[in-house]
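Practice problem 4.
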């Protein structure tokens, strides 16, 4: 270190003389006039050295302070390893709470009252504060006021609405009975629940109504057209009885441009009424994702004017409870659909519905196709009936692909009964395929108990290694050297062990 030096160079003026000169009345002593400038210059050099030394000392102090802070942080990390419970940062806890709120709804019903936010708030004071300010814990609702006196359910709903911020979007499903006579609903506590929902209509985002009859039987619901729905993104309407979609959808005529998904349990109206629906519900032209559900016993049929809805990019068909198509049903044609999902529930619908729909379909822009079967019977009935009543319609799906002239890049098959050869033939018509998923669920496995335990789903020809040799480009001398799907990038394959050799 440089020693501090207070003497100004080789000055001949002593400190006492300097003090006397400063006190004298002579402002410019002639005796030292030539020497003073040299003294000032020498002092400037000393000041520069002092400043440099100060900067070096500051840098060293800062360096030591940073090392001390790092040592403290490292010490805290080691101490946390000894703690039985580690303290997560509040922002991480809030993120976990948001994930939890998205996975579990606030269930407010006659048989169950479950508020996930309250469960978290009961842990400790810190969690209580974080949960109270986490909007995602309070904005995901499932309401089922289908009891004679649902008044006890009103307060939990108010609790959720009060804890969520006034601007946070609401996602809810309303499952309950709508009474037949509107005048009987005025004093029903269920109407108070609907009134609360309608009063927050500007916050609706993902909405599902599943009722016994008609929404307009609730007096408070009739005021919905007076409220804007700027955040509404998806709308799901499902009824147990036949309903008039022309009377229900116009209630949501104030939806904003964010509305892009529409789920209708009875499909679209007939062609004669579709123009009236577009006029009363103009948002139909902005729908990108259309999901049509059909149930056995309903009077609805597929709509022929599907091709007039040019904005549809994703189309989903769901057939339930033994619903079957007829040869008189109109063709299903859309020049804009690029994503098609066909979901067939219950074994009664499997034998013909899938193939009949393929006969009607023509989607030239199709890129992604998903075929999902959901079987809910007993395992031994599943195995026997699937093989006996349903066979993969190889010719029909080939005709569909050739007729549509589409190029599939994504294919998802779930729980289908298909042989090795039929699967290879299907892939022969998808040369542009990039992602392929083939999944079987556990219900296809052998049954250990039951009167027909020997029956399994292995009656169709199982997959062999020849299937995989067809997928890649480098087969051996006994295989095929040309790639079946040369552009394949992602393969998800899940089958039961007794269905694969």
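Answer key:
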């Amino acid at each position: 270190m440089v020693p501090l030096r207070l003497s100004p160079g080789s000055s001949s003026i002593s400190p006492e003389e300097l003090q006397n000169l400063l006190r004298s009345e002579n402002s410019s002593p002639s005796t030292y006039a030539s020497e003073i400038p040299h003294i000032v210059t020498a002092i400037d050099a000393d000041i520069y050295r002092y400043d440099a030394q100060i900067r070096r000392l500051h840098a060293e102090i800062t360096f030591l302070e940073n090392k001390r802070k790092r040592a403290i942080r490292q010490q805290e990390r080691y101490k946390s390893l000894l703690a039985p419970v580690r303290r997560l940062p509040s922002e991480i806890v809030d993120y976990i709470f948001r994930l939890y709120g998205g996975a579990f709804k606030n269930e407010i019903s006659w048989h169950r009252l479950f508020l996930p936010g309250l469960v978290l708030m009961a842990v400790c004071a810190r969690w209580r504060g974080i949960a109270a300010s986490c909007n995602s814990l309070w904005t995901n609702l499932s309401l089922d006021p289908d009891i004679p006196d649902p008044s006890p359910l009103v307060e939990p709903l108010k609790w959720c609405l009060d804890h969520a911020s006034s601007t946070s979007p609401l996602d809810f499903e309303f499952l309950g009975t709508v009474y037949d006579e509107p005048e009987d609903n005025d004093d029903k506590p269920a109407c108070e629940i609907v009134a609360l929902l309608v009063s927050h209509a500007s916050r609706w985002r993902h909405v599902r109504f599943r009722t016994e009859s008609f929404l307009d039987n609730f007096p408070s619901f009739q005021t919905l057209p007076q409220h804007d729905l700027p955040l509404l993104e998806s709308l799901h309407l499902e009824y147990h009885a036949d309903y008039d979609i022309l009377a229900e959808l116009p209630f949501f005529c104030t939806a904003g441009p964010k509305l892009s998904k529409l789920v209708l349990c009875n499909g679209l109206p007939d062609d004669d009424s579709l123009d009236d629906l577009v006029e009363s519900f103009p948002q139909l032209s902005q729908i990108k994702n259309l999901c049509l559900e059909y149930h056995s016993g309903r009077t609805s049929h597929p709509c022929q004017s599907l091709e007039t809805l040019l904005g549809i990019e994703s189309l989903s068909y769901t057939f339930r409870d033994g619903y079957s198509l007829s040869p008189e049903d109109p063709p299903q044609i859309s020049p804009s659909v690029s994503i098609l999902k066909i979901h067939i529930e219950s074994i009664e619908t499997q034998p013909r519905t899938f193939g009949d729909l393929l006969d009607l379909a023509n989607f030239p822009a199709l890129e992604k196709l998903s075929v999902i079967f959901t079987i809910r019977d007993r395992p031994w009935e599943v195995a026997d009936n699937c093989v006996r009543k349903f066979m993969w319609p190889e010719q029909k799906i080939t005709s569909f692909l050739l007729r549509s002239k589409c190029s599939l890049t994504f294919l998802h098959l779930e729980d289908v009964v298909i042989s090795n050869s039929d699967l290879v033939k299907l892939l022969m018509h998808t040369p542009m395929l990039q992602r392929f998923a083939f999944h079987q669920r556990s219900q296809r496995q052998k049954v250990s108990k039951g009167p027909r335990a020997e029956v399994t789903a292995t009656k169709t020809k199982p997959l062999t290694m020849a299937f995989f040799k067809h997928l890649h480009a480098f087969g051996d001398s006994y295989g095929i050297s040309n790639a079946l799907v040369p552009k394949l990038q992602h393969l998800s394959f899940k089958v039961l062990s007794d269905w694969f050799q």
